[in-house]
């Protein structure tokens, strides 16, 4: 799951979107409105202001650049529905998966999301491996496996 920062310029129609994973690593940058000018390209990329880590946008942009930008933060959805959509395999026993999910602590849910990301990456490079159903993935704590390629 990703945390989203929507950044709107106060001086132009430009709106940008930055998405970060649970570890604060940039996963996506989108230009929602407008186009990057050569001055913006210089400022973002050549002068080192591009927030490749969430800490940069949180600690520097939010405090120092609020006179230039409106920044909205979209919190991460930790619900079962968000996770099952991210996981992608709704086959098997969804009711059992939901009940197992409800028993997880917030720390376990964060581990579940991180482990799901590693697992999906592992499956991408091991196409002959069948994806576990959601209840098995949770109940066997498969999300704690390293899932290395």
Provide the domain count.
Answer: 2
Shape: elongated
Radius of gyration: 19 Å
Order of helices and strands: EEEHHEHHHH
Largest sheet: 4 strands, antiparallel
Q: How are the strands of the biggest sheet laid out side by side?
A: 3-2-1-4
Task: Produce the secondary structure layout.
Elements: E1 3-9, E2 15-20, E3 26-33, H1 38-46, H2 54-64, E4 69-74, H3 80-87, H4 94-102, H5 106-125, H6 134-139
Tell me what the structure shows.
- With 149 residues, this protein is of the alpha+beta class.
- The protein folds into two domains: 72 residues, no CATH class; 65 residues, no CATH class.
- 42% of the residues lie in helices and 18% in strands.
- The chain has six helices and four strands.
- Strands 3-2-1-4 form a four-stranded antiparallel beta sheet, covered by helices on one side.
- A hairpin with a 5-residue loop joins β1 and β2.
């Amino acid at each position: 799951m990703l945390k989203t920062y929507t950044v709107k310029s106060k001086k132009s129609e430009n709106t940008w979107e930055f998405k970060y994973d649970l570890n604060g690593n940039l996963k996506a940058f989108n230009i929602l409105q407008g186009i990057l000018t050569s001055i913006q390209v210089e400022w973002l990329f050549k002068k080192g202001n591009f927030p490749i880590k969430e800490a940069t946008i949180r600690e520097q942009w939010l405090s120092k650049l609020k006179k230039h930008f409106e920044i909205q933060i979209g919190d991460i959805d930790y619900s079962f529905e968000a996770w099952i959509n991210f996981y992608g395999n709704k086959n098997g026993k969804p009711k059992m998966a939901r009940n197992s999910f409800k028993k997880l602590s917030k720390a376990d849910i964060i581990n579940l999301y991180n482990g799901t990301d590693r697992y999906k990456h592992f499956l991408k490079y091991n196409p002959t491996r069948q994806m576990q159903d959601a209840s098995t993935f949770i109940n066997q704590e498969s999300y704690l496996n390293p899932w290395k390629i």
